[in-house]
Design goal:
By secondary structure, the chain is mostly helical. The chain is built from 9 helices and no strands. The chain has a single domain, classed as Up-down Bundle (Cytochrome Bc1 Complex, Chain C).
């Protein structure tokens, strides 16, 4: 166990402390910005979870309580606003990075592993944003939940079974909301940690590219 922990720390240290040319400073700035936004999301999400109630009868009222009454109204509103703004900013960075990698053709060759993890990470960001929007459980969130579950149910083979599990019954209600809440605060973060662990074991993209060019020569 200690050996695996040591090797993981070495891989992470190579990622964080390896030298970068000046031309890559913008890329590093985006990575640090994404890390800061992720930290903000974790902190504000934990704070919001102290007051949020994942129940179809009280969820919307708990969100209103956070916005109007927590910290005399301004701190709850600010915390939820920062959480929402950071989420959208992180998603924008993910989309920008996706387009940049795609247009530069960096998904080819040994960059495929980075590309695949990047695609999964982008899908994870959209899942976070979608499940987070549902937690307000207002009319728009309820309509979005019903529509998404209907789409899932229409999928062949496993669609009906997956939709029934997510809905948690014949009708969309408290169990549905709790399932989405569990996804948002437990399952999706666990997947994110797993992707980060896999990414830490990959060689840096520029190293993989130099190795590939050397093999071609």
């Amino acid at each position: 166990m200690a050996r695996h922990q040591h090797t993981f720390q070495q891989a992470l240290r190579r990622r964080l402390y390896r030298p970068y040319p000046v031309s890559r400073s913008r890329i590093q700035a985006f990575r640090w910005l994404a890390g800061i936004l992720l930290g903000i999301l974790v902190v504000t999400g934990i704070m919001l979870s102290f007051y949020y109630q994942p129940n179809s009868e009280t969820a919307y009222e708990s969100v209103k309580y956070i916005m109007r009454d927590v910290g005399h109204g301004w701190s709850g509103w600010l915390c939820r606003g920062i959480h929402s703004w950071a989420s959208h900013a992180l998603l924008a960075i993910g989309v920008f990075q996706f387009l940049k990698v795609f247009l530069n053709g960096r998904y080819r060759g040994r960059g495929r592993s980075h590309w695949r993890i990047g695609l999964l990470s982008l899908a994870l960001m959209f899942a976070f944003a979608f499940t987070g929007d549902l937690l307000a459980w207002d009319d728009v969130a309820l309509w979005s939940a019903d529509l998404s579950l209907d789409w899932i149910e229409a999928l062949p083979v496993l669609g009906h079974a997956v939709s029934s599990i997510l809905r948690g019954g014949a009708e969309t209600g408290t169990t549905t909301l709790q399932n989405f809440y569990g996804f948002h605060v437990l399952l999706l973060p666990a997947i994110g940690v797993a992707l980060a662990w896999l990414w830490s074991w990959l060689p840096p993209w520029d190293v993989a590219r130099r190795d590939e060019e050397g093999n071609l020569r």
